[in-house]
Amino acid sequence: MATTHQTLDDLPGSGLRLRKTAAVIYATLGLLWIAIPQAPVNRLNDFNPGPLRDSALVVAHAVADFSHAIGADRPYQAGRRLFLAVTGKQED
Q1: How confident is the model at residue 33, as a pLDDT?
Q2: Does 41 have pLDDT greater than 90?
Q3: How far apart are CA 40 and CA 61, in angstroms?
Q4: Is the CA virtual torsion 78, 80, 86, 91 positive or negative?
Q5: Has this prediction a pTM greater than 0.90?
């Protein structure tokens, strides 16, 4: 008895659906990076120094500078100030 193995591409429309889903996920991550640019910078600062981390940090700072220049980070900055005021915490 022969067995057949189906892949995602064998199912009707599933390959296209998967690509569309991936595009939406990556677009969402890109928008979040523009809207909250400090998150990748802070995360990369937690890693041990090295060439890959340093290169990624240059890119993350460039995105943060771009976000600030176009004002995309204003809602995040306002929310951060409000959070710090309400909790009484200090900026790191």
Answers
A1: 93
A2: yes
A3: 9
A4: negative
A5: no
